[in-house]
Amino acid sequence: MTRRIHLGLSTCPNDTFTFHALLTGEVQTPGLEFEFELLDVEALNERLGAGDFDAAKGSFHAALLSKGELGVLPSGSALGFGNGPLLLSTEPGRTPQAGDTILCPGKHTTASFLQRLYYPAARAEQRVFSAILPDLEAGRVRFGVCIHEGRFTYADHGLHLVEDLGRRWEKETATALPLGGIFARPHLGQDTLRSLQAAIRSSLDWAHAHPEATLPTMRQYAQEFSDEVLMAHVDLYVNQWTRDLGRLGQAALASLAREGVQSGILPGGTPPLRVLGRPRLFHLCSPDTAHELLDPEAAELLSLRPESMEREGFVHLSEEHQLSGTLETHFAQVQALVLLELDADRIGSEVDWEPSRGGESFPHLFREIERADVVDHWTLECGPGQALRVPPLGSPTL
Q1: Per-domain residue ranges for the chain?
Q2: What residues of the chain score a pLDDT lower than 50?
Q3: Which residue among the candidates 61, 148, 233, 364 is catalytic per the annotation?
Q4: Has 283 been annotated as catalytic?
Q5: In whole angstroms, how far apart are CA 38 and each of 64, 211, 274?
Q6: Domain 3-78+176-263 CATH superfamily
Q7: d(CA 222, CA 242)
Q8: pTM (predicted TM-score)
């Protein structure tokens, strides 16, 4: 049975790079059929708020205002260091004062969030992001917040940098700046959300393997047509946290919610965004270890601390499709194991994906496994000379 997904994307090169393989059919998406719309990010924010999309790119600022109606998928985000919006001026050495007007690329964008956070006395006036540089160059307004490709070209328009708002955020919060993510509605259901997440990650992996092939799609939608500018944009905005938010990304989202509430930009009590569509996560251990961990008569806070915690600082995990390779590589001579499935949502804020066997990214848990983390388990056994096999896993019992 195929599920149709109405998916909104921005016209920014980081999105057209990431989603090129889905837009062009280079990767297959069993069970999903996509209807795409590509729009300006503030148009996406407004349409998301109106309930027009099943999932869409949008600003983290906008998603935090959704009152829990939206969650963020692990892949597809623009988040990191040194890639935030720039506050520009038509005059060198001039900074906004009370009553000055600052052009912003939409009231729900993270750029506008930073303008309100750091220059609250100025008056914001909203523009489509592509109109801000031309309006500044024409002298219609003295100040504007620049995003996307304009970061690389503002000097060509005779404009001057007042402040890198992203750098200020990084300095004052000691976290990465969350700009935008792929937001979805929880009612899609866990299976659909996981399939959608897997499709996005596959598309991104394809783009990294064939970067030159993505250029026609990026050129089709970009405001700047230089291939060098397009790839510079990708290099800046597509990073390890685009593939998975990981621990740092989720800490940054918590900081955004906290700063927004404290400044009054967000309503009091606004929580960080929930991460949706996490893949199923598994750990292999000995039967004796599993028995100790799962024994209901044992101490309530019993936890599992594998040797890798001492050697490497984390617990090795596998996604479902990686289990066969893990068994073949690390347990070829073993005749009995227990496979633990862990609650991906419960442990997710302590998991990073890092290159491991063959350069493939594997999930690593940066704390011990607690009994409450385990949602299911299977015993794997084989005879001498045989190899352990992954059992039918079915749907998670959680």
Answers
A1: 3-78+176-263, 86-173, 281-381
A2: 398
A3: 148
A4: no
A5: 22, 20, 25
A6: Periplasmic binding protein-like II (3.40.190.10)
A7: 20
A8: 0.91
